[in-house]
Amino acid sequence: MDRLKALLLLLQLLVPLIAGLKSTTPVPKPRGEYTHGTWLDKAEKYYLFWRFDQKSITFESHVRARGYVAIGLSPKGGMEGSDIAIGWVDSKGESVFQDRYSVAQEMPRLDESQDWHLLFAEEKDGVTVLQYTRKLDTGDCHRDNVITEDTMRVIWAYSDVDPVSPNKIAYHHSLRGVKSLVLLSSAEAQPRPFPDDAIFWNFLNPNVTVLPQRKFYWCQHFRVPVTNKKYHVIQYSAVLTPRNEPYVHHMGLYACPKVLSRYSLEGHDCSEDRTREGNECLHVMTVWTIGSGPTVFPEHVGIPMGTDADPLYVMMETHYDNYDLRSDLVDQSGIQMVLTPTLRKYDGGLLRTGELGMTILVPPHAAMFPVIGVCHADCTSEVLRSHPEGVRVFSAVPHAHLMARTMTTRHIRDGVELENIMRDDHYDFNLQEVRMLKEERVVLPGDDIIVECGYNSLDRTNISVGGRASTEEMCQSYLFYYPRLNWSYCESSLSVPHMLMVFPEALSRMRDPNLEWMQPFKEANWTDTMTEQLATVSRMGERIIRCGTTVEEAPYSVQWQPRLFPMVTKPLQSKTKHCSIQP
Question: Could you say which of 46, 68, 101, 217 is catalytic?
Fold first, then answer.
């Protein structure tokens, strides 16, 4: 028995070490103290550290290069409109550092206002280290990009050859890239030490053979370990197969409803078909994206596991980016739960808000088409009737697909719009992670939560509909809150009669039992006028409310009831940006 206990203790100590194997290349040691850091490239040659305060941000780049090192903030991920810093150490050991900007696919131009400032530069043993800083908002609206809490497209480049002169910088060729980051993330960069009684549940893919294609999805069900006591989940993190780190793009763990007693534990390729078994597992538990760290819950909150209200089965979806089309790629990556039997003060819950998905229609050739879901005041009133103090939201997970460009979770109380719970004007499907809020938000009985998504369909030739495939669309915001109630979703779908106001001739065709009900909309010849009419209905049309829980079959009384769009008498005032530097 003593040997068994010792073995179990050893395994418990090893698991977190295995989970920490996120890179085959050692992370460089920074000169200063930083709260965040990540590899920018798949080859792991460019590592970026950073920290920030209310006014400025400081970076430190460690790059295996003997020439120049560049970093930039791009509005769309390309050169055009980018705000760029570039530096190097020349053959005499002297440093050169410049603030530049780009207007096209050409050598960036020197900025008249030098707002990036070098703190340290060194080239040693084939590695160039640059430490530099700038204000979050430099006041140069025409040449610099403001660093916000949005997703930022960070572009990077380097060369093994110094520029001939400060005004002649050689093209970087393939030594460049882009990575989406939330630079002003409130998440804890470093996980806290595990408590002595921590246990670890690993949900790992069973030797999945990744097909030689750029986008490959694998869906795998797991039986949750059987336990006779309640635990609190205090952290989620990724467990990555060594040397496969560049190929695991993102992973999501979903709770499966208890209405089905068991699921097949055989995984399957779900790259195209999400309609087979597992389509019921919709409730996000956590998400992880390449380069992101663990999800660490606040010290006063834990997510319960082991109670009658918790899932018996979970599904993990893994998205692989087999960028070099390898045919020998086998993976065992997955997600780890860290749990403790020492319960924290509050049970945490997860609330799905937004658009249910069944009536999402995005016409083609639209620059910014709105899809809006509502967590209606009638739902919050009923659910929180016995909790007049409300619930406190501490983090959010925005979720949409490839066409989404903006996502906002609005908060309305008595017609007055409060500060957004979450807003990202540069949403990127490739960066899906749990976003910790700077301050907890209280949701009271009678509050409305409005989730707005903006979609760019300029490259689409047919209408896009709601669904789980990445080529379809979703518009959801998952909110972690406490204390946990018997409440898992508060969402809506657009009223079909209001949709028919735009396309009334579809009604007769919808009555055809041989047609899918959305088929007339898919086959319509969408004009600009029809698109704008549907956008108006999407913004203000009647909603069908869904309000309930994934645990019990009995929903709240407002389930499937029609409701008018919430009245906002005092919208949130947009913050105007002051330009202190003129063009």
Answer: 217
